[in-house]
Amino acid sequence: MKLSLLFIGIFIAHCKGEVRIAGGEVTTINQYPFAAALLTNVDGAAFIQRCGGSILSRSAILSVASCFYTGDQVHQARNWRARVGSSYSASGGTIYFIRQINIYSTFEPTSTRYDVAVLRTTFDMVFQPGVVEAAFIAGRSYSFSPNQEVRAIGWGEGSNTEEPTTQLRHVDIWVVDQQLCASRYGNDPNIDENAVCAGWIDVGVKGQCPGDNGSPLLDSNNTVVGIFSWAQGCADLIHPGVNTRVSAFTSWIVATALQP
């Protein structure tokens, strides 16, 4: 079942069901019209793609809080832009200025626990079917099936050795058991009920990699069920990618997107 808050453009699903994409294939924005490339000039004069996000409404974009920190210092909103409506992070579509970065109140920069953020654009984004649309997000009751197949999307290199590409990529991977994931990271206490791990465990080759945090993890209905937070290595066969579990933060995400 899917519910929608049409007056703000956020779609909520209750049905079951630095991130780079390794082992994936190039795709187009038409398949993921809710995808946003987030650009920053924090490290220099030019704006370059650093993170990804998912469009929630005409003025709100979902990402992770860790994108917007250097150490324990949060970035200024003026240092970020969002490119939407383009398959490429460096050209096409429309660029929108960011006026506000809303960080979840208990986010911990050192551990990246509670890693979720909602950006607000200066001007409303212009929606166009199949090009710029709002995403469906997981509702509070969303649950994962064992070994559920999911899809990661994002911009960047396809492996540890490849140069970054500006074209959007996607790859199919699988949800990893929570206890197994935590054990692969030395029983890290930060991998808890607010996280969901995904990858190709004990095989590698395909998965999420550091370099493009904030990009969505999708189920078979293109519902945003996770937000890539961090990983060790790139599509590592031992360590899966760690994503923020959207269903744990649905109420906050919606409330924040509703703010004027």
UniProtKB/TrEMBL annotation:
Biological-process GO terms, alphabetical: proteolysis
Signal peptide start-end: 1-17
Highest taxon, organism lineage: Eukaryota
Entry-linked InterPro entries: Peptidase_S1, Peptidase_S1_PA, Peptidase_S1_PA_chymotrypsin, Peptidase_S1A, Trypsin_dom
GO MF entries: serine-type endopeptidase activity
Keywords: Disulfide bond, Hydrolase, Protease, Serine protease, Signal
Domain Peptidase S1: 21-258
Gene3D superfamilies reported for this sequence: Trypsin-like serine proteases
Pfam family, one: Trypsin
Keyword Signal: yes
UniProt keyword Lipid metabolism, yes or no: no
Family classification: Belongs to the peptidase S1 family.
Protein name in the entry: Trypsin-like proteinase
Species in which this protein is naturally found: Chilo suppressalis (Asiatic rice borer moth)
